[in-house]
């Protein structure tokens, strides 16, 4: 007696996946790191929403903006923790995602095994970089949008100026661009070093120096500073309240500039005599206006994206020209 199967056995029904083939394999290979970074992103996002809600309640209780809000964030540990996480996120992605991404496969021999099958080097590398860059971009966009949403309407009560890294680098397009750049830097270091631990150490040092020293210098120089002169005994107009002061001098009527500490004699008579002798009559301020923030951020993001493209090109060249 024969029977005919009209339905597929339950065990043979294939489940439809969002990802197939090599991308699915790459995601599965790095699922622990992926889950950790996404979990940190979600946690930080929820924390920002909570801290913003708490701050608004405090401001309403103090009658802000009609009344002085005081230092509502002065002792706020949540704000300090969030900004610390945002400041450390580029370092985390560079060291724990970028550096081991290719170096781990090179060190273990997985890269040679995969690329000797039906997968080309380019396909393998694109899948790897696609995972790392997508993770950096998604995490950066989500956190940047939320932090901007928190900071922008209430910037006057925040402890840092708009040009400081804690604000400038975590709002607008800068955070995702910075995450992309340092992740790409980690990948490139890993490809060149070919060993996970040395690559992570070198990437950590590079990312730390870049974020703590080099980028701080670049950030201030992106903008075009302006000069404003006002009487020596006058007060700086309120419109400069949000401006970032780059440098300050005292000046004479003919335009000569002297250091801010000029004529700081102990007595009033000695000070006035020094001022008369030098002809000093003005305060001179070099500043960056708050209105330049958005153009400066897009310029900064463009620099970082260009750096990402350059590092990616180096990685592609190295992988295509040298043995894995």
Describe the structure.
This protein is an alpha+beta fold and 324 residues long. It folds into 2 domains: 19-223 and 292-321; 226-291, no CATH class. The protein contains 10 helices and 4 strands. The chain has helices at residues 21-29, 31-62, 77-108, 110-115, 121-151, 165-168, 174-193, 196-222, 268-278, 293-321; strands spanning 226-231, 244-252, 257-259, 280-288. β2 (244-252) and β3 (257-259) form a beta hairpin.
Q: In summary, what is this structure?
A:
With 324 residues, the chain is α+β, with helices and mostly antiparallel strands.
Shape: elongated
* Helical content (DSSP H or I, runs of 4+): 55-70%
Q: What is the first-to-last residue Cα distance?
A: 58 Å
Stretches where pLDDT is under 50 for at least 5 consecutive residues are: 1-9
**Class by helix and strand content?**
alpha+beta
Number of helices: 10
Strand portion: 5-15%
Strand order of the biggest β-sheet: 1-4-2-3
Please tally the β strands and state the result: 4
- C-alpha Rg (nearest Å): 27 Å
Set out the fold topology:
Elements: H1 21-29, H2 31-62, H3 77-108, H4 110-115, H5 121-151, H6 165-168, H7 174-193, H8 196-222, E1 226-231, E2 244-252, E3 257-259, H9 268-278, E4 280-288, H10 293-321
Helix pairs in contact: 1-5, 2-3, 2-5, 3-5, 3-7, 3-8, 5-7, 7-8, 7-10
Q: Features of this protein?
A:
about 325 residues; alpha+beta; 2 domains; 4-stranded antiparallel β-sheet; 10 helices; about 10% strand
